[in-house]
Amino acid sequence: MTKEDAYSERGAAFFRSSSALVANAKAIMAHTGAKRLIAVIKADAYGHGATWAATTLAKQAAVHDFAVATVVEGEEVRSALPDDSYHIILLGVQNVALAARMANQHLEPAVGSLDWLLTARDNLVDSAATLRVHLAVDTGMGRMGAKSKAELSSMYQLVMADPHFELAGVFTHFATADDANQAYYDQQKADFLSVVQALGIDQKYWHLANSGSALLHHDEIPTETIRVGSVLYGYNPAYPAYESPIKLEPVGQFVGKIWGVHQLLAGEAVSYGATYVAKEDEWVGTVPVGYADGYRRTLSGMSVLINGQRQKILGRVTMDQVVVSLPGPVPINTDVTFIGQDGAERISVEELAEYGQTIPHEILTGIGRRIPRIDVK
Ligand SMILES: *Cc1c(COP(=O)(O)O)cnc(C)c1O
User: What is its EC number (predicted)?
Assistant: First the structure.
């Protein structure tokens, strides 16, 4: 089936651009001076497709390090990469019962406590493979990690002394990297540096910078290795507080096709709750995309692009369909852009998220499995 067929068959598609992904990876490395990029491709690469993102970045941007959230995601990416020399980090809190499976698949978990390591060691006694680990330091995110120098020290000593483990990294995660008030950020940074320096952990192991840090604070923190997601996909996590200091190319475009065209007469209503009522006779189109596809219900009233012009979602977004305003009757199969460029107009995922009272990450990771992902250059 060709790409156009997949789009025609479903009446909707998510187009993803490999050249944009690669350009963003190169741009953020140049901006920060990073030598190593850990590409965060969790949640199916923020909805874009994890195996696609991994193979594209490995081949076209020489990326050697990837991060996902779970063992299952890690295994999927592992089987797509050419060999085991590519690193795959598991960022989230992990089930220690899977330690041997991680070691066998060369997955590198983030580790947040000494207890985790002690239990993992028991689970690894019969395993020939060593488990490479990234020690988490909790400096204020509150999800996982050592909270004191003493705790990190005991984890570090165990990993260095025990042949079942190998140190792969030590890291922290910023809670407010894209916030205008920098005090909390500065405290996290200072706490991290003070513990890793006190323990003499080599800087080559450190990774701190998420997208917000890499964009806005790269000259304040060590950025030899950066660990970024959102910027790779071409959006700015600090929007609207800050403009991106570098040009980011949006990787994804979310589009649908008008499959029905009809006229509403003055006084007729659209969708559940009959919240939209035509003031005069008007043309409308129906598109087979709804909140089950990730076009959220809070986007009722949002703009879409049709023939390079802004039109509106009329009434409530339903599970599988939306109704859009039209300037007049248009041909069946006319494209409707929910996210992306059409002519001179663009709807960014940042704009969509702001309208829908959420963040771009949630929009992109929510784009449903019913929507075919289609590769473009
Ligand atoms: C998701 C995540 C990232 C990537 O965050 P972005 O803001 O998308 O760059 C980095 N580190 C950790 C620990 C994460 O959970």
Answer: 5.1.1.1
Residue 115 backbone class (left: φ over 0; alpha: ψ -120 to 50; beta: rest): alpha
Q: Judge if 167 and 279 occupy the same domain.
A: no
The helix or strand, by DSSP H or E, that contains position 87, with its residue range, turns out to be strand 87-90
Q: Environment class of residue 310 by beta-carbon count within 10 Å: exposed (0-12), middle (13-18) or buried (19+)? A: middle
Range of the domain at 325: 252-347
Residue 242 within any structural domain of the chain: no
Nearest to 136 by CA among 80, 60, 67, 59: 67
Do 206 and 66 share a domain, yes or no? yes
Each residue's pLDDT tens digit, 262-304: 999 999 999 999 999 999 999 999 999 999 999 999 999 999 9
Give tens-digit pLDDT for 120-176.
Answer: 999 999 988 999 999 999 999 999 999 999 999 999 999 999 999 999 999 999 999
The number of domains in the chain is: 2
Sign of CA dihedral 163, 165, 171, 175: negative
d(CA 166, CA 130): 7
Centroid of ligand 1 to alpha carbon of 227 (angstroms): 7
Instruction: Report d(CA 59, CA 22) in Å as an integer.
Output: 10
Residue whose structure tokens are 């087979």 = 288
| CATH label of the domain that carries residue 292 | 2.40.37.10
Q: Is residue 377 part of a domain?
A: no
Question: Could you tell me which residues come within 8 angstroms of residue 72 by beta carbon, excluding any fewer than 6 positions away?
Answer: none
Q: Is residue 80 part of a domain?
A: yes
Pocket probe for ligand 1: among 227, 236, 251, the residue whose CB has the most ligand atoms within 8 Å is: 227
Q: Which residues, other chains included, contact 100 with Cβ-Cβ below 8 Å and sequence gap of 6+? A: 123, 124, 126, 127, 129
- pLDDT tens for 200-211 read 999 999 999 999
Residue 86 and residue 217 share a domain: yes
203 and 98 part of one domain: yes
Whether residue 37 is found in the same domain as residue 125: yes
pLDDT in tens, 305-348: 999 999 999 999 999 999 999 999 999 999 999 999 999 999 99
Q: Is the same domain home to 274 and 218?
A: no
Residues with CB under 6 A from ligand 1: 40, 42, 91, 173, 210-212, 227-230, 237
